[in-house]
Automatic annotation (TrEMBL):
Entry GO terms, CC: cytosol
Ranges where the PLD phosphodiesterase domain occurs: 129-155, 350-377
Top EC class of this enzyme: transferase
EC number(s) reported in the record: 2.7.8.8
Protein name per its UniProtKB record: CDP-diacylglycerol--serine O-phosphatidyltransferase
GO BP term, pick one: cardiolipin biosynthetic process
Keyword Cytoplasm recorded: no
Alphabetical list of PANTHER family matching this protein: CDP-DIACYLGLYCEROL--GLYCEROL-3-PHOSPHATE 3-PHOSPHATIDYLTRANSFERASE, MITOCHONDRIAL, CDP-DIACYLGLYCEROL--SERINE O-PHOSPHATIDYLTRANSFERASE
Family named by the database record: Belongs to the CDP-alcohol phosphatidyltransferase class-II family.
Keyword annotations from UniProtKB, A to Z: Lipid biosynthesis, Lipid metabolism, Phospholipid biosynthesis, Phospholipid metabolism, Repeat, Transferase
Gene3D superfamilies hit by this protein: Endonuclease Chain A
SUPFAM superfamilies on file: Phospholipase D/nuclease (SSF56024)
Amino acid sequence: MKSLEFYQSTITNLKQLPMSAGHIDVLFSARDFKAKILDLIASSSKRIYLSTLYLQDDDAGKEILNALYLARVHNPGLVIKVFVDFHRAQRGLIGQKNHGGNAKLYRDMRQRLGDKVTILGVPVKGKEVLGVLHLKGFIFDDNVLYSGASINDIYLHQADKYRCDRYHVLYNPALADSMTAYLEDYFVSQSAVIRLDEDVIPSSKALKQDIRQFKKTLRSAQYHYINTTPESNEVGITPISGFGRHGNKLNQTITNLLRAVESEITIFTPYFNLPLSISKDIKRLLKRNVKVTLVIGDKTANDFYIPPSEPFKVISALPYIYETYLYKFVKTCQPYIDKGLLNVRLWTDEGNSFHLKGLCCDYKYHLLTGNNLNPRAWGLDLENGILIHDTKQLLKETLQAEQEHVLKNTRRIKHLSDLESIADYPAPVQKFMRRIKTTRLDMLLKRIL
């Protein structure tokens, strides 16, 4: 373990792009996010590049896809490319075994409206359970709209339910160019990356050798840009990607951020299942009397939560599994909660779900990311993030307002008794959790959840 000054200098010395603080906007709702997507699609004149886990075959997904086609009709020179996970696009939602997946929508749209929107499937691994495309970011000309959200009814608050996320708009031509070049260089040019709107899509087995080579490429993939020192009225921007357990630059940056904190840090994660290294770093911070705030989704705000009144499904045990991890963590850290150093806050809002991620370190460094801060993100998925260097705290008021907006729907965990234990869970959940404990499947689940 090196000194605090070492980790601070490591963060400071990262390559940066300068940016006016006035060119960063924060959106406060899923509906605003959707409206901004549609507005930016309509106003784009040269390029639209969307990278997301999935674009769903539902009302919101169709509305966005229709808007993309219409934009291309109005401007034939507009380049439109959408990147989604190869495996996720070819299956239905969990429990919908007979659904053809989102690729059927893409194919039908192309057949009806012509070859105007290129939709590419990115196979990060040979199987979805082993890793997915979790690289975020929508580029509209020189604007980057960054969020952990995917595109479907819930993420865009199409009907009565929404999934709460973070939404940031950054106007920065150099950042947009760098993120576009990444998608072109590391995705479009790779033989493993396949169009999903074709009549015939190769299987992952047929692409086995291409995927193997693609994984090697992704391990060293990174954003390229000219390092420039920000002026006194600017912030610095560092885009970062990461893939794999070793040499993962995003993981290294998150670790360095945690170890560089002086007085306070806020961590957003939807599902409490921290990698061991992050858990250890948080405990080190507490020992240094650093104030740590964890903002986590309550189990009832998990997208897999099913009320006890409904029939039990195996997948509905996941929110309870996450809560057991939190229960153990709180039990260990209760003295720090009592001292006011650890502030654990659970988000819930009338049956809606929670999907926020990111770090705020001393209000000087802000990581926008789709990384869930869990073992899966740490070692299996392709992830990215945008680190904002704001040493003069030019964005403090704006980002404080974002935090306050999120925290208004949270409750503080003051004691272990504020959480349910396994003994409080519905009988089918208790039975399932005893079974996985007996077979040691709980250790495997912790790695892939």
